[in-house]
Each structure stands twice: as structure tokens, then as C-alpha cells.
Design brief:
Elements (H helix, E strand, L loop, with lengths): L8 E5 L3 H10 L5 E6 L12 E4 L5 H10 L2 E4 L6 H11 L7 H8 L1 H10 L7 E4 L2 H11 L3 E5 L9 E4 L5 H8 L3 E5 L3 E11 L4 E3 L3 E6 L2 E7 L5 H17 L4 E10 L4 E7 L9 H4 L4 H9 L13 E7 L6 E2 L5 H5 L4 E5 L4 E2 L4 E8 L6 H10 L5
Parallel strand pairs: 1-2, 1-4, 2-3
Antiparallel strand pairs: 5-8, 6-7, 6-8, 9-10, 9-11, 9-13, 11-12, 12-15, 13-14, 15-19, 16-18, 17-19
Helix pairs in contact: 1-10, 2-3, 3-4
Length: 381
């Protein structure tokens, strides 16, 4: 890649907070970002060159994106892999990660089957089409179990805990479509590894501990509070996952550390991920810069961690949808080594991701509690 002014253009399907942070990382690299999003003046709009307003799977929108860009990528799994593949072939604009990877990821059952076939350790799972299928599967896997919609779920949406036989019918009705069921994993902690595939190299960021409540990520702790052996095993599994993926980019790899110290794959996101936001301040190269380096074929940056880091999500704390007005931010801005990231969303509602706070220190002790205190001082009420 040769740098010019204006620089090479990366077209991004999606203009949410991930597109916004990709835009922030693009400028120092001399890259221009062009995003597509159905929401006019989307969160990424203020920090990118231009936005094409259109649906994520709209052929005309993606064709215009490909015609105006030198490289294509995506920050949301709602992009249509068939359309991406077709416009890439017709315009000669490469897309990374590969559309085939997106096809695999979009269907949780296909994802689990492919990874299991490749030898990646996963929880026991079964395909489910009917209530009878779910009853039969739970008789094998045991109760409780986790029923998941095969497509479209995120942040806990599309996931239903099935406590016993009495919950089966309602769970299937609520999913209202193709599903899969997994055994309930008895885990010590949840982990994440941001994996990177470059043109001819691969790497991983340090293993991160992820803390969820109501199946929504609340905090990321890096390095993870796990043993060295567990962290090494998590990295090994992440490398095995990268071997299965096609194309260049960053991949969010979510894992379980079981109570007996084993590692099981939960899910994969073929893009920068919430569990890697801490890398902006915590590593020499952020996950967003790394993704752009990979997509454009540049050498990958160093994934070494600079110091212990905790990232905490700012979630909507209101009961009704309303204009987004955050209060209490002065306490974050006035705290040494604390960093506020605002996503620029115009409206807030309950549990919507509106931003995050990152806190770094040379000593990890007390860092999580301090970061939570900063986050809890913020409100939309």
C-alpha cells in the first residue's frame, strides 16, 4: 500500500460505535474511511470522510461502497456475504475478512459445527427446530441448557435459559425460528482473545477476562485474572480458531474457562469486539488500528500490553427511550489515567451501549473497583 493525500479508502459496512473507533484509528495511518449505515448521521459520521445511507444488505449501497473504496470490511454481522462477494468480484475491491467467514459466523449452528470439526473445543450442542427437538436434546445435555437463535442474536438477545421441561414450549416460541441448544457450561470465568490475521502473519492480544451481567458485557480486565497455564491454553485455542477463519482482520474470540481449568469456545465475531476496547489505551496497537492494518495488507502492529487495564461499559440506565444526555463525566475526565469514550448515539434506552470508560494503572490491585466507581458515577437520569 502506498500512502497518498487523500489516502487509500477503506469502506466499512456499519457506522456504529465500532465504525466510529475505526475512524479514529484510521487518521494516523493516513487512511480515509467511508461507512454505510441506515441511520442518517450515524455515530461514525463525525470522524469519517463520508457516509452512504443505506441498509447493510442493500446491493446498490454496497456496490457504491465498493466503487468508492480500495478495501472493504464490516463492523456488523448483518452485512450480506453474498452481496459483498458479488460486488467485490465485479468492482475488484477486496473484502476482509472473507465473505465465507461471515457466512460461517452468521449462523451459530454452522459456526459451532465447523469449529468442532476442526478440533476446536466447544460445549456440547444440538440443532433444534421444534419443542420435541429441544426436549430430546435437553434429556441428553441436561437442564438447565441455553437455547440460542441461530441468526441475529447479540448482547443476550436471542439467548434463552431453559431451566426445566416446563420452559421448553415457551422458549421455542420466543426464539420463533431455527435454533440450537448448548449444554450449560460450569465456568470459572469468561475470557476473550482478540485474534489477528494479517497478509502473512497472525497474532493475539493478551487474554482478557470479561464480566457479564444479564448476558451483556460490563467490564473487561486485562490481563485476565487466570493462571498462566489457562492463559496459554486460551491463546492456543484462539490460534486454532484463526486457522479456521478466512481473510484478514481482527476476530473477537469469546471463551469459557471451566471450573476444571479447560477452555471452551463460546462464539466468534469477525471484527473488532467490545471485549477489545481496552486495547486503545492498554496496548501499543489498538484492535482498531490492527484491523485496519490487516485489511489493507500492512504489517501487524505490536500487541504487547503497556500496563494493567480495565474497561467498563456505559449502559443506558433509563426506563424509557429519551435523548442521550450523560451526566457526571467530569469525575472521569478529572481522574488521572482514566479515559472516556463517547459513542455519539442520539438516544438512550435501557442497557444500550453508549460509551465506555478505561482506567489504567501500573498495579492491577483495586483497578476493577476503581473503574466501576467511575462508571457508576455516570448517569442519564
Amino acid at each position: 500500500m502506498t500512502l497518498t493525500s487523500p489516502g487509500p479508502t477503506v469502506g466499512v459496512v456499519g457506522g456504529g460505535q465500532l465504525g466510529r473507533m475505526l475512524g479514529e484509528a484510521a487518521a494516523p495511518l493516513g487512511l480515509e474511511l467511508l461507512v454505510t449505515d441506515p441511520t442518517p448521521d450515524c455515530p461514525a459520521a463525525p470522524v469519517v470522510r463520508d457516509q452512504i445511507v443505506g441498509d447493510f444488505d442493500e446491493a446498490a449501497t454496497l456496490r457504491e461502497l465498493a466503487e468508492r473504496a480500495d478495501y472493504l470490511t464490516f463492523e456488523i454481522e448483518l452485512a450480506d456475504p453474498d452481496v459483498l462477494e458479488r460486488v467485490a468480484e465485479e468492482t475488484g475491491t477486496p473484502v476482509h475478512p472473507a465473505p465465507e467467514t461471515l457466512r460461517t459466523i452468521q449462523d451459530k449452528l454452522v459456526q459451532k459445527r465447523r469449529l468442532s470439526d476442526a478440533g476446536v473445543p466447544v460445549p456440547e450442542f444440538r440443532a433444534v427446530d421444534t419443542a420435541d427437538d429441544l426436549r430430546e436434546a435437553c434429556e441428553e445435555l441436561g437442564y438447565p441448557a441455553m437455547l440460542k437463535a441461530r441468526t441475529g442474536g447479540y448482547d443476550g438477545r436471542g439467548n434463552i435459559r431453559v431451566e426445566g421441561p416446563e420452559d421448553v414450549a415457551d422458549a421455542v416460541d420466543e426464539i420463533a425460528g431455527p435454533a440450537m441448544v448448548e449444554e450449560m457450561v460450569d465456568f470459572e470465568r469468561e475470557l476473550a482473545v482478540m485474534g489477528c490475521r494479517g497478509a502473512d502473519e497472525r497474532d493475539t492480544f493478551p487474554v482478557t477476562e470479561t464480566i457479564h451481567r444479564e448476558e451483556i458485557l460490563r467490564e473487561s480486565v486485562a490481563p485476565a485474572r487466570a493462571s498462566k497455564a489457562v492463559r496459554e491454553r486460551a491463546r492456543d485455542v484462539a490460534h486454532d480458531v484463526l486457522d479456521v477463519m478466512d481473510g484478514r482482520g481482527v476476530f473477537g474470540i469469546e471463551l469459557f474457562e471451566t471450573t476444571d481449568g479447560e477452555i471452551l469456545l463460546n462464539e466468534i465475531a469477525p471484527r473488532p469486539h467490545n471485549s477489545g476496547h481496552w486495547t486503545i489505551e492498554g496496548c501499543h496497537t489498538s484492535q482498531f488500528e490492527q484491523h485496519l492494518r490487516a485489511v489493507t495488507g500492512q504489517p501487524l502492529g505490536s500487541t504487547d500490553q503497556r500496563f494493567p487495564t480495565v474497561s467498563t461499559n456505559i449502559l443506558g440506565d433509563v426506563s424509557e427511550r429519551q435523548p442521550a444526555e450523560l451526566r457526571g463525566e467530569d469525575s472521569v475526565l478529572g481522574t488521572p489515567r482514566a479515559h472516556l469514550h463517547w459513542y455519539g448515539k442520539r438516544e438512550v434506552y435501557g442497557l444500550r451501549k453508549m460509551g465506555h470508560v478505561t482506567l489504567t494503572d501500573d498495579d492491577r490491585d483495586g483497578l476493577l473497583a476503581d473503574a466501576r466507581d467511575l462508571r457508576d458515577g455516570l448517569t442519564f437520569e
